[in-house]
User: Fold this.
Amino acid sequence: MWTTNWRDTVWSQLDREFDLIVIGGGITGAGILREAARAGLKAVLFEQGDFASGTSSRSSKLVHGGLRYLRNAKIKLTYESVHEREHLLREGRGLVIPLPFLMANFRGDKIPAWVFGFGLSLYDILALKWNHAHYQPDGLRGLCPQLTSPEMIAGYRYFDAQTDDARLVLRVIFEATQDGARALNYARVEGLLKTGGRVSGVAVRDLAPGSVKMAEVRARAVVNATGAWADGLREQVRGPKRMRILRGSHLFFPSAKLPLARAVTFLHPRDGRPVFVFPWEGVTLVGTTDVDHGAAPSTDLRIGAAEAAYLMDAVTHAFPGLGLSLADVQSSLAGVRAVVDTGKANPSKESREFVLWNEAGLLTVSGGKLTTFRLMAQTALRAVRAILPEHPRLRWHEHVLDPLPPETTVCDLPPELRLHLLGRYGNEACNLAEVAREGELEAIGASPSLWAELRWAARAEGVVHLDDLLARRLRLAINLPGGGLAQMERIRAIVQPELGWDDARWEEEEKRYRALWQEYYSPP
Ligand SMILES: Cc1cc2nc3c(=O)[nH]c(=O)nc-3n(C[C@H](O)[C@H](O)[C@H](O)COP(=O)(O)OP(=O)(O)OC[C@H]3O[C@@H](n4cnc5c(N)ncnc54)[C@H](O)[C@@H]3O)c2cc1C
Assistant:
């Protein structure tokens, strides 16, 4: 639990020397902080915006082996990913959940159907789980009646997993802080400090409203886990620009408009890229695009008109009978990823594997996937160990996330809510249920989130701005029509007193949220 004065407390502790500074509060930084805390290092993480406000709340929310990587013969990446998926499914119950997939093959597909059969066999062998099956069109329609296209010729059923990406980051950061690490959101690293030409700390500025705090923080190792922003800090150690910034966007439909019980994936009729459509937290997600961003990385991102048209083409190709149009879209979300720029004409051909560079003592870890965050963290910590040789040998724990108590032995949570709350809040789930007032264990509109989660997150989860709460602690910006603006009166009644905001601050925050939603989350 982040207590009321947690920010002041962390700021007051920044004058000590740390073993490790982690810059960036997405899944990469979170994973590194977690493993560092486990290894007994004194570690602190700085995130310039909210935790997970970068790519890690804007992913496609799949915890997956990455079937498409097999196409590029990336067997190692796929093997590692399916292995991590299995770990996360076991340990992240309620947060990482199995997702049945149908792969639909259409006449004219750029890759013949048997190739997928071969790929899925390999996929299952790597996971040591024989889990796929071949279907004729009628069989596929039996599993997904919305697949009405007469052009569908066959398909497969297989399994992957999905998550709430922002909640995964929060859970990992929270568990790291429980283990002694420190983490600050709205704390931007503005400069690298050097000793004898090597990076030995950072200058950090507090971006929370009304604060003018700045600090110079020293550590023996500094990791740049700023994802798509990585080149910005590398410039300060004369690292040449190496990253190519790609944008990927999603559309979300209300479930009633595009009702699916399982994920459907297929090749886009235009360019043969795999696209997917699946149910996620009360809405149906359609993703994704993969285009050069053509601008500096930012969280001020919006889906482009051409990307929206591309995704709509995919939807009408697979589900022609639903008569969907852009007017049916409820919300959208775009994110940027960094890949190492090798100049390939097609952005989708650039490798998705992560990189680790040591430049004048600045360790940069970038690229990779949400799914493989622990492997990236372990690789980063091996490099940290080379800088801290006297540090005791790092021991790799088998678990990614802290073990949860068995569902049946925890407090009196309503059985239908147990997994949802345990997965998101871990051992705090009971505390959350205890603070719920009457009627607050009910869902907020069509979202699966509860009113009690809103109260808990406002009270205990490091919220600085209203959008931290509505776009990331809960995902109302995506899974409620209009970003939940119609529910603002009740949201305010719960949240304002919990955050201790006066009316002026509330109005400012509500205005900020309305503008952000309109600009970056609204339908195209
Ligand atoms: C469209 C899209 C879909 C994807 N889908 C999937 C998927 O389904 N499954 C999967 O496994 N992977 C997926 N990925 C990949 C995955 O999302 C990313 O690999 C992962 O989220 C990157 O995490 P990160 O922590 O490296 O970067 P980020 O989450 O971007 O974190 C970096 C953070 O650094 C912060 N920062 C930058 N500069 C500073 C500074 N000076 N001081 C302090 N903080 C700073 C930023 O604010 C940011 O929050 C997807 C990626 C994209 C773009």
About this structure: The pocket of flavin-adenine dinucleotide is lined by residues 23-29, 46-49, 53-56, 59-62, 64, 188-189, 225-229, 248, 288, 335-337, 366, 368-371 (CB under 6 Å).
